[in-house]
Every structure is written in C-alpha cells, then in structure tokens.
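Sample pair:
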Amino acid sequence: MMSVRTALLLLLAPLLSAALITGARAGAGETPWVGVQGAEVRLLSGRVVDGTLEAGIEIRLAPGWKTYWRYPGDSGVPPDFDWSGSRNLGIIAVAYPAPRRFSDGASGYSIGYKGAVVFPVTARIAAPGTPSRLDLTLDFAVCEALCVPAQAKLALDIPADGGSAVPALEAARAALPVPAPLGTAATPGIVAIDLDDTAAPPLVTVLARAKAPASADLFAEGPDGSWALPLPARKPGEDGLVRFTFALDGMPAGTDWSRAPLRLTLTDAGKAIETIAPLPAK
C-alpha cells in the first residue's frame, strides 16, 4: 500500500519540481551545504561517546519558507530519513526539536520550523574502534506559498575515534523537549488530562502550567502515525494555568481510544517538555 508521504510527494511532483542534490564530504565533521529551493542542508558529525556517534542534520531556510515536524498538522509532509547506505552503524535515531505552528493559508495550521533547525542524531557504532560512514537520503518538503518536495543526499566518513564536540549539536541537543511525567509540579508541565465523551466527537482537555500562558502551545500525537489529531485551542487561565482543548478526531476507523497513550509536547517561554499521557477510560 502506498504511504501517505509517498502519495503527497507524488501529488506535488507534477506541479513543482523536486530538488535532488548530493553533498560530498567537505572536511572533518561536516558536509558542504546542499542547496534546494528555499533551503540548504548539511550533515554534521561530532564525538563518539561510549560507542555512540553524535551527529546532526542542519537545515537553513530562506526568509518566508518553512519545513515540517514529524507530525505536520493540517497540511504538509514530515521528513523521511533513509540511512540504509551507512556503514558500521547500527541503530540510528533522529530527535526532533520543539516545533511551532503556522497558518497554512486555508483555515488550518501546519507544524514545523522557520529560520534554521538542527535535528540531533545518535548512531550506535557496530564495531567500535573502526571507521564508519554516515550516509543519508533526506526526503522533505519546503514551503512558501506552495510546497516543493526536495531530496538531498549527504555522507560523512567518521574516523574510528570520532571527532570533537560541535557547538551547534550541543546546543540543539540541550534544547530538545525534556521528558516530564503527567501531574508534575514543575513549570512548564502537564497537570491533568480529561475527556468529555458526551460530545461528538469526544472533547479532550489538557490542563498545563506555563510561565507564559498567553503564548504557550501544545502539540498532541496519537500512539502511531495513523492518528492525525487536531491542533489544540488555547485558553489561558489564572495562576499560570492554561487549558488546551481538541476534538478526539482524526483516528483510523474503528479505533478503540480508551486508555490510548497520547504524546503531548508543550512549549513555553523558550522551553519544551514531552509527556506521555493516557486518555481516560470510557
């Protein structure tokens, strides 16, 4: 069966030309910048710590352009990272910085990044003490008024002992959403989750504590990529509390949502947390 990402890219391709550019190795720790319409991309590598390589993908966007988070919202295409050409590397994991929401110009919102973003990457060295190769094919979308599907191929040869710390990677990793339990007393924090199943569809309310309630934002994801939950509406209250509400909609037909775990990302005053919170039982 054709994936949603593939279907969207095929839909866009006849209208807009995709960019395919390959970046060769520039020097220790980074590839050259690879230019696509509205953006440029490079691959970074840093230290090897306890057999794990610290790396990253950096995207710089032209003014007015954006790219997407792992869940793109009402419109858009999430990035796809293909590491199959890599050598001497086991599990490769990509972490997502906290995103922002943007109007998509059609009464909806997309979720993603403007300006610049660094996706931190960790890769387990299969045979420690020997050289490795980090090889990426990145399929993603960059959008201004319209979206352009793009592809960039980048590769770095990694010395056996890795390299030095890269400030951009260190900063990106430090800014990632921090795991936080449901009911935490910290700020920012997810205080509680409630559900009104008398509404049709059911209405979810997430109570959060924020330093800046008027600008704090919440992004809700289901247990897997087949869920496409609406973006929550924000209603600031007193004492730093804010209520986010959204309809329990966008699930696959026949889904039993009772106790399903939601992944909640809360952004507030330059900080971000991530909480796994189960929906209340029916």
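Residues 4-174 form one domain.
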